[in-house]
């Protein structure tokens, strides 16, 4: 395992995970955050605006982004405090979201969050398969949506056999370019073939479908589970929150502009996956293929993050189903048959689930409401209250209010999804 060294802290006694020889790179940290947010969620945001109404959606996205950023900040504050309280325990590998849960809520809490995290990551994998199936079916309608999903799974599964996913590092550039290309194509087609109507022509508020908007917003903005490891990997968990602020501003502006413009182009015809609004054509088909390739390479990254959390929580799972239950020294590929079997079985089940889902938008809203909103709006304030018991009464009340809001919105979003 990579050794870590303690660097001079900003606060006396603070310890931060810092890989030996690695310097904090704010530019790299910025783009790692952006990459964590970019993906399937962006393509669902225009339909979310349709569900909420134009102005409600735009203002609501900004408010959710601010609240999500705040709860990420207090989550990172909790991480730094717990790292200082347990320097010997986490100085080598750094803390994870599950570690924060174990230190604040105990073993039962850790198990609950592990189940939540694994469910979230596997649900995102299902969302990737759904988008691959939809895009490829639009490209070749003679092959069914379900058939495309099952044709994609063997390739995705082979990629999950790679124990060292750094080999897929080059795909981050492909992913960024594919997303920019897709967004640019939607906006170009909208400006070229559609007219933006006066704002008064669009509903400003849609009460009966507003919970669906919340689920999609949470799916996109509540990336708390991923922000923790990105912070640790950055090399300086105390300077990282400042980069997070800038990243969230950039992410919010780009995606709110994209979502609102896309909705004003297509109005009531806005599809759950905005790429479905594009007509068939050579360039658009190239865009669809690029998106599918990017999703295919992103699949093993998300898949592995779920299995890693499971391995860290369960000694039994690590002993029998991890790639290297003993030592990885001198090995590139695993020799553990059950490691490969677990991936094949899991990904087959994910494909079966994806083949039974007919509404991408409702699925994204359900995952966002039930799981990501819980990890983003309910647990972080609780962690902070427990870790900082001497905080002001006013701040405790504010954090309790966030928990109540998260629980209420999660319940409504889950019910309507």
Task: Tell me about this structure.
The chain has 417 residues and is mainly α. 73% of the residues lie in helices and 0% in strands.
What is the compact description of this entry?
The protein is 73% helix and 0% strand.
Summary tags:
417 residues; mainly alpha; 15 helices; globular; disordered N terminus
| Largest pleated sheet | none
What is the SS-derived class?
Answer: mainly alpha
Radius of gyration of CA atoms, rounded to a whole number: 21 Å
Proportion of beta-strand residues: under 5%
SSE sequence, one letter per element: HHHHHHHHHHHHHHH
Number of helices: 15
Please give the number of β-strands. 0
Low-confidence runs:
1-21
Distance between the termini: 43 Å
What number is the mean pLDDT? 87
Shape: globular
Instruction: Give the % helix.
Output: over 70%
Layout: helices, strands, pairs:
Elements lengths: L25 H12 L2 H13 L1 H32 L1 H4 L6 H43 L5 H16 L10 H23 L16 H12 L2 H11 L5 H27 L15 H32 L1 H7 L15 H20 L3 H28 L5 H24 L1
Helix pairs in contact: 1-9, 1-10, 2-3, 2-8, 2-10, 3-8, 3-9, 3-10, 3-14, 5-6, 5-11, 5-13, 5-14, 6-11, 6-13, 7-10, 7-11, 8-14, 8-15, 11-12, 14-15
């Amino acid at each position: 395992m990579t050794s870590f060294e303690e660097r001079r802290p900003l606060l006396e006694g603070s310890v931060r995970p810092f890989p030996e020889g690695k310097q904090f790179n704010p530019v790299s940290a910025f783009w790692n955050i952006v990459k964590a947010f970019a993906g399937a969620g962006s393509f669902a945001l225009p339909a979310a605006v349709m569900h909420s109404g134009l102005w409600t959606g735009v203002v609501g996205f900004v408010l959710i982004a601010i609240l999500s950023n705040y709860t990420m900040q207090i989550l990172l504050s909790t991480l730094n405090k717990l790292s200082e309280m347990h320097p010997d325990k986490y100085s080598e590998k750094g803390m994870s979201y599950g570690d924060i849960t174990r230190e604040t809520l105990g073993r039962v809490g850790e198990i609950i969050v592990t189940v939540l995290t694994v469910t979230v990551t596997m649900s995102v994998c299902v969302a990737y398969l759904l988008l691959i199936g939809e895009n490829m079916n639009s490209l070749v309608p003679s092959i069914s949506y379900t058939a495309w999903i099952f044709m994609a799974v063997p390739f995705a599964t082979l990629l999950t056999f790679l124990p060292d996913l750094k080999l897929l590092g080059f795909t981050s550039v492909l992913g960024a370019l594919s997303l920019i290309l897709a967004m640019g194509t939607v906006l170009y087609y909208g400006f070229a073939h559609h007219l933006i109507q006066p704002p008064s022509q669009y509903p400003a508020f849609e009460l009966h479908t507003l919970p669906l908007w919340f689920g999609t917003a949470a799916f996109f903005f509540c990336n708390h589970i991923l922000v923790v490891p990105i912070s640790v990997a950055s090399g300086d968990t105390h300077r990282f929150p400042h980069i997070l602020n800038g990243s969230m501003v950039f992410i919010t502006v780009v995606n709110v502009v994209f979502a609102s413009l896309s909705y004003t182009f297509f109005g009531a015809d806005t599809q759950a996956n905005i790429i479905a609004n594009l007509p068939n054509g050579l360039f658009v088909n190239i865009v669809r293929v690029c998106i599918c390739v990017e999703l295919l390479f992103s699949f093993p990254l998300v898949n592995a993050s779920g299995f890693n959390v499971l391995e860290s929580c369960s000694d039994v799972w690590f002993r029998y189903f991890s790639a290297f239950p003993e030592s990885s020294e001198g090995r590139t590929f695993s020799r553990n048959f059950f490691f490969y079997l677990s991936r094949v079985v899991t990904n087959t089940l994910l494909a079966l689930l994806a083949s039974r889902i007919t509404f991408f938008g409702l699925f994204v809203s359900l995952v966002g409401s039930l799981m990501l909103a819980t990890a983003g709006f309910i647990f972080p304030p609780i962690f902070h209250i427990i870790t900082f018991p001497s905080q002001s009464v006013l701040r405790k009340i504010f954090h309790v209010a966030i928990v109540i809001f998260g629980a209420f919105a999660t319940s409504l979003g889950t019910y309507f999804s």
